[in-house]
Amino acid sequence: MSNLNSSGNTAMPALVLIAEDEPEIADILIGYLKRSGLRTEHAADGQQALALHQSLKPDLLLLDVQMPVLDGWNVLNEIRARGNTPVIMLTALDQDIDKLMGLRLGADDYVVKPFNPAEVVARVQAVLRRARGHNVASTPLLRSGPFQIDVDSHEASVFVAGQPQKLDLTLTEFKLLACLMRAPKRVFSREELLITCLPEGDTQERTVDSHISKLRKKLEALDIQGVPLSVWGVGYRFGGDV
């Protein structure tokens, strides 16, 4: 029996990458997804998940939060820096703050352990349908005032006197600016920015201040003031009259 995409054309079944360090859970998910006509690959830790994501370009990632080497938050952060692969988080932490953290970092959905495998399959299929309903060929651009960020090519620019000026940013500075631009009126705490934008191993919130300061100086050199904007006692928002 042939597989059909949403347009009615024959297509390769969607590939789901399962990042799960517990073999029993991974085997159950693989079995249910395959019976639903989907292809699967398995990663046993976060580093392997990133490597397989890079090489296989899966249609969706089922991502466990608590994994060895790299945890799910770090993997999700890197996946979002790379592009828009749909991600469903698998978490044993049944707390609202954990769910919100996943959604803020860019997860498309979450499932709390212990789960019904049939429910996971249903959620996978729903997220895949939504993803296929979007124009995935379009380049994801972030724009706010004179700023423009191309997420796929990791290029940031700002228009000065009507002319685009490419910003020479470090990876962390790029992630910080992109994060703030996605919700320019929202105030992000230092803890959120630390988890979302800084490399694994950086655990001091004051490190966020250092990167923000360096980013701000680069923008001030182009006569752009107040970006990012400090919100006393809370954190940072995109800011400026842009």
DSSP helix fraction = 40-55%
Query: How many E-type strands?
Result: 12
Distance linking N and C termini: 54 Å
Under the CATH scheme, which class of the largest domain?
Alpha Beta
Major pleated sheet: 5 strands, parallel
**Average pLDDT:** 84
Beta content comes to 15-25%
Which regions contain 5 or more consecutive residues with pLDDT less than 50?
1-10, 135-139
SSE series? EHEHEHEHEHEEEEHEHHEE
What's the domain count?
A: 2
Provide the structure class: alpha/beta
Read across the widest sheet, the strand sequence of neighbours is: 2-1-3-4-5
Shape type: elongated
The number of helices is 8
CATH architecture of the largest domain: 3-Layer(aba) Sandwich
- Oligomeric state as shown: single chain
List keywords for this structure.
12 strands; 2 domains; Arc Repressor Mutant, subunit A; disordered N terminus; 8 helices; 5-stranded parallel beta sheet; alpha/beta; 4-stranded antiparallel beta sheet; Rossmann fold; 242 residues; 21% strand
Question: What this model shows, in words?
Answer:
- β6 and β7 form a beta hairpin.
- The protein is of the alpha/beta class and 242 residues long.
- The chain folds into 2 domains: 119 residues, Response regulator (Rossmann fold), CATH 3.40.50.2300; 97 residues, Winged helix-like DNA-binding domain superfamily/Winged helix DNA-binding domain (Arc Repressor Mutant, subunit A, Orthogonal Bundle), CATH 1.10.10.
- The protein has 8 helices and 12 strands.
- The N terminus is likely disordered.
- The strands form 3 sheets. A 5-stranded parallel sheet has the order 2-1-3-4-5, with helices on both faces. Strands 6-7-8-9 form a 4-stranded antiparallel sheet, with helices on one face. A 3-stranded antiparallel sheet has the order 10-12-11.
- The termini are far apart.
